Amino acid sequence: MITIPLSADALAATRFAVSPLMHAGALLHPYRPRTTTGAYSLSYSHVSGVLREQRLHLLAAVRQMVHAFAPVFYAPVFLTPPAAAGRIPEPHEDLHRVASAPSRVVARQLDSLLGVQSQHGRAALAALRILRRVADRGEADFANQLACELDRFWLRGLSRTWSEAAAGAAEDIALRTRLLADHGMAGALGSLHDSVCYGDGALRMVGPGTAEVPAGGHLVLFPSPWAHTWLLSVDPQEQRPAYLIYPARPQPSSSPPDGRNRSMGGVLGPTRSALLADLEVARTTTQLAALHHLSASTVSYHLGLLHRAGLVSRTRSRNSVYYQRTVPAAALPRPAAEPAAPGR
């Protein structure tokens, strides 16, 4: 379990943000699964293939060394520039900040990467050799080459879906803001992922390994459709806040729009259409059961079908699970006859 103590001041300063580089970080993260599904199904092996095909050796080496800091991952500060407040930066803005990072900042961060002990295996040793070889040319060359490789990785893997991903991240932040208004910061933080909870002045995340992050700093929370679980990055030199990437909700369907509507024709019936009509705002199974005079098991059955079809998102807040419609009412296909549900 990872524990992050959060004082009242740190909690007050915690905020949400959208960042192109954090989206790239979600893809490059060593904990990315070998296989993924959905509209953003770029697996670990696919990302590794892009790094090889495009000969992005420095970026691959940095990725390998980030893994050596498990369970709390560390990415150099110049690779994670401060997130813009109030707007979504363009990818070229983030890349320019990487390329133009001050040499003294790059030097300090390189010291952290190059100081990793050799017991992390042959892959880490090979990555260290690449880092040292490029670092010998100077900090400015190191930052510039890394920015160039990030740019090529972006163009190859992310550029075509960036607009949709950024819009989805902004929509997720709007959802968390509503949860914050209804349930407070503890509810909003607990909704980020099933294994994340807040209580007793600390954020706790269940996962591999155990670590406690030093107290004092706040969090910046980055929703990303490319994240399959929570991904934490902490700067041991405390030059920036802790960054927490989490899966954006709602996730888009993996089917093309036209094909999705055809497949959903058999999903919708009178009951599910009625449930969807009341999911303009997030509601629990119990709330929907009371509204529609149905048993909780019946509502749960229908919500399961709607969720698998990509028509509703599912978000946990404390001990409750909230469902919300992911598409406008006008975009829904016509209802079809539906089979009887259990308990109806």
TrEMBL record:
InterPro entries: ArsR-like_HTH (IPR011991), HTH_ArsR_DNA-bd_dom (IPR001845), HTH_MetalResp_TranReg (IPR051081), WH-like_DNA-bd_sf (IPR036388), WH_DNA-bd_sf (IPR036390). Residues 266-338 form the HTH arsR-type domain. Keywords: DNA-binding, Transcription, Transcription regulation. GO terms for molecular function: DNA binding; DNA-binding transcription factor activity. It holds the Pfam family HTH_20. Residues 247-267 are annotated as: Disordered. Gene3D superfamilies: Winged helix-like DNA-binding domain superfamily/Winged helix DNA-binding domain. This is Helix-turn-helix domain-containing protein.
